Amino acid sequence: MNVSDAYRPSDRGLAVIVLAAGSGTRMKSAIAKPLHALAGLPLIGHVLRTAGQLEPAHTVAVVRHERDQMVEAITSLADGVAIADQDDVPGTGRAVEAGINALPADFDGTVVVLSGDVPLIDAATLRDLIAEHDHSMNAMTVLSTIMAEPKGFGRIIRNRAGSFEAIVEEKDADEAQRKVTEVNGGIYVFSCAELRVALDEIGTDNAQGEKYLTDAALRIQASGGRI
Predict the structure, then answer these.
(1) Measuring CA to CA, which residue among 188, 12, 194, 226 is closest to residue 109?
(2) 26: annotated active-site residue
(3) List 26, 64, 178, 226, catalytic entry
(4) Residue 124 belongs to what domain range?
């Protein structure tokens, strides 16, 4: 459903959190993954440029690995980006928590979560996602896609009626879940108040010992929030 005409950033508080704390170990590079170049610009530069097109009230970049290099790149690529440092607790949930804590304490608007190493996401898609989030009165909205070879990605699990049920990381998935071809795109829209509560309740009891952002879905559903 394309409802981008309903997108009005001035109608609400909008914040964008860009995750750039990971080491990108699968690239086997000494350079942090978001700093690798694409078309003459670091990956995170493309993400920050797209984030700016949403006209957010707040933009936060979460850093940890190669922190000083990352901060230098971010500040040279975009104005007005706040920096949040992730601590030793691993996982995307912890990274987003650091980003949320960098927002004003009274911020209760909409939060878009982007990855600093996903440069090809465009503002039009994000506007549609935010507008759909508002139109459907969601607490959490997830961008997903269908992949013929979904290995390595978290799976979107739906019930028999086709409604969202859970996001299951591959390392935690059973055999049936691994056959699911709808995967998590790693791009989210949240209502900030409900996200704050969900993050407080997420632990690290999983195969990777990380604080998964995807576990926020379970907490939001348990409290009656729409996804």
Answers:
(1) 12
(2) yes
(3) 26
(4) 11-142+186-214
